[in-house]
Specification:
Layout lengths: L10 H8 L4 H20 L2 E3 L7 E3 L6 E4 L6 E3 L5
Antiparallel strand pairs: 1-4, 2-3
InterPro entries: Kinase-like_dom_sf, Prot_kinase_dom, Ser/Thr_kinase_AS
GO molecular function: ATP binding; G protein-coupled receptor binding; G protein-coupled receptor kinase activity
Protein name: Protein kinase domain-containing protein
Amino acid sequence: MVTDLLLGGDLRFHLNQQGKFAEDRSKLYMCEISLAIEYLHEKGIIHRDIKPENILLDEQGETVHFFYSFFYSLKYLPFSF
């Protein structure tokens, strides 16, 4: 697996440093995380380990690029009707 180099650390690091986020930043993170989860669900994939430590940020700590832990926490669910 190849990913971008993300030097901003994870969300847990930033929470520990700042204590809490401003409302606008919290809204940005929640929107980006929600869109990522929606995309995975559309592909039939569930992420079973969503937590601040698995949400990676860019160098400015402003943008969520991708979140994951290990592949064992992902599960593919084929759709059936």
